[in-house]
Specification:
Number of helices: 0
CATH class: Mainly Beta
Order of helices and strands: EEEEEEEEE
Strand order of the largest sheet: 2-9-4-7
Strand content: over 45%
CATH architecture: Sandwich
Number of strands: 9
Shape: globular
CATH topology: Jelly Rolls
């Protein structure tokens, strides 16, 4: 499933997920500022990690983190490649020109 990003509107990519691919979001070429919000619920103290393609991993705590980045992207997708054994993960996107 693919949805279109809207300026300043929080778009869910994964909700209460433990594994798999999230929703693909089509990003207008005018968007240069991007934020991905990752929220872990009942994640063990060891946490989980998130990494952009070709980027460094970020530890996801039992709570929410915001990852800001810039650039021109056509599409974005959240993917949980290793099953979350304890807890769930929500991933949301918001973009702006």
């Amino acid at each position: 499933m693919t949805i279109a990003a809207m300026r300043g509107v929080l778009q869910p990519l994964q909700t209460a997920a433990t594994t798999g691919n999230g929703i693909v979001i089509a990003i207008p070429s005018s968007f240069r500022q991007h934020t991905v919000y990752i929220k872990g619920t009942d994640i063990p103290s060891a946490g989980a990690t998130w990494a952009p393609v070709a980027g460094s991993p970020v530890t996801v705590p039992d709570g929410e983190i915001a990852i800001n980045f810039e650039g021109i992207y056509q599409f974005l997708r959240a993917r949980i490649s290793t099953t979350v054994a304890s807890g769930t993960v929500d991933v949301n996107y918001v973009g702006a020109p």
